[in-house]
Amino acid sequence: MTDLQIAKTITLKPISKIAENFGIHPDQIEMYGKYKAKLPLQAIKKTSVKKSNLILVSAISPTPAGEGKTTMSIGLSEALNRLNKKATVVLREPSLGPVFGIKGGATGGGYSQVLPMEDINLHFTGDFAAIEKAHNLLAAIIDNNIQSKTNSVRLDPRTISWKRVVDLNDRALRRVIVGLGGTTSGVPRETGFDITAASEIMAILCLAENLTDLKNRLGHIFVGYTYDKKPIYAKDLKAQGAMAALLKEAIKPNLVQTIEGNPAIIHGGPFANIAQGTNSVIGTLMGMSHSEYTVTEAGFGFDLGAEKFFDIKCQNAGLKPKVVVLTTTIRALKYHGGADLKSLTTPDLDALNKGLPNLEKHLENITKFHVLPVVAINRFTSDSAEEIQCIKDFALSKGVKVAVADVWAKGGEGAIELAELVIAIANSQASDFKPLYDWKSDVKSKIATIATEIYGAEHVDYTSKAKAHLNKIAALGLEDLPVCIAKTQKSLSDNPKLLGRPKDFIITVRAIEIAAGAGFLIPITGDIMRMPGLPAHPASEGIDINDAGEITGLF
Length: 555
Description:
Blueprint: H1 3-8, H2 15-22, E1 30-31, E2 37-38, H3 46-49, E3 53-59, H4 69-82, E4 87-91, H5 96-100, E5 108-109, E6 112-115, H6 117-121, H7 127-147, E7 164-166, E8 176-178, E9 189-191, E10 193-195, H8 200-207, H9 211-219, E11 222-225, E12 231-233, H10 240-246, E13 254-258, E14 263-266, H11 281-289, E15 293-297, H12 302-317, E16 323-328, H13 330-336, H14 349-367, E17 372-378, H15 385-397, E18 401-405, H16 407-410, H17 416-428, H18 443-455, E19 459-462, H19 464-476, E20 506-515, E21 520-525, E22 544-545, E23 551-552
Parallel strand pairs: 3-15, 3-16, 4-14, 4-15, 7-10, 16-17, 17-18, 19-20
Antiparallel strand pairs: 1-2, 2-13, 5-6, 6-13, 8-9, 11-12, 13-14, 20-21, 22-23
């Protein structure tokens, strides 16, 4: 059966019952139909947060074969609940770009899903729409200010860095000209669109701890310079209040349920290759306020989402994870070992052994943060006993615990062994989280630390454009901000063709964007783009709705 067909066999509990089990009275939640709700920010309890065990689920470098981080996160939370531990999974919201493009949704799969999966993958509670509107409101205010003869801050259009966003993969919007149509239609200038998941508003929403913090961060968004080189921020355009008003509901985390009827929080959705790649601080704190164990995930491989989770989110919110679950699959490791995509279901110990260095590098990276890892082998029916034993032997040779998890087919039952290892490591108090770098280090040192320590690069090169951006950052006094590197997810390097564990490579930073409101800098490497395109045959071709209002073809 497909994921959607499996989801249709489940009888959902009323969301009021899920809220009650989570520890929030049904009268406190805001209903979005029968099976979705918004949670009030006042339900966050900082004293309870300190007692919760935060578990991060990450993965090896992703491949076309898929690794299943979200599925593993959900299955682990189900298993913890089966072991009588109060556990909540906290995830990111899906973007319509991947849903209609090539990657698919973000609600897990098989018997390890969050529900209702159609609603979550298609619009959900409108958070992305609110973020999009708040972002584009600032864009409209900027162009209006340029046009105005009575209320202008004298913005130089050539210096404006703020684009517009839309939650779709639309390559035709990467570079556009606005303001055409004559003197009443604005001032012509070149700009473009990013996907909503890459919006600084998304990053801000996911790092803010309350409405006051949100509004303050919105006001610090860097817009550009005046003709006499004065920096202009959103607060100079008096935009932050209206933008925050548009986000008054979006800032509240969303409560849904797992396929086994346990609570799940889904909130925020930045991509990890072009943004920080983790759900909201508010969502994580909400989960930790009401759970013994809070399971969360960070996008793509450990080198992207998890590094940013540790160095940006955890430092920002004062979080200290206890365990990292590193999701791996035999298929993905064989792909990293040079096996052809069409042959990944055929047993191949030689290719598997050649792919193990990728797993090795990610395990090394986890220990750099002084957090203990556990390897979770996401099992597929094509995996042979010899291949499974090969990974087990490798992990144990590195002193790392390992468990086979069959969460797609068995849900929480398939992750009991993994959950027991997670509990044991968390209770051992052996982890002592430390970030990789000090925010007060200079920008080039922070980039070099990540590139050499996490990616394994020899050194970092900068284009003339990136060097100019470094000077701009220094002039604005923003050198103390952490860095959120935009890089391909397909490789530890910035070249998507270098699989496995590449060595002796150079990372090239071609530009550095400023996200002063979010509170980080974005060095852009390789050919990474902040507006993806659709494939030749997008997933949208197979999605439909029948006369009864039932969606078909959605995974």
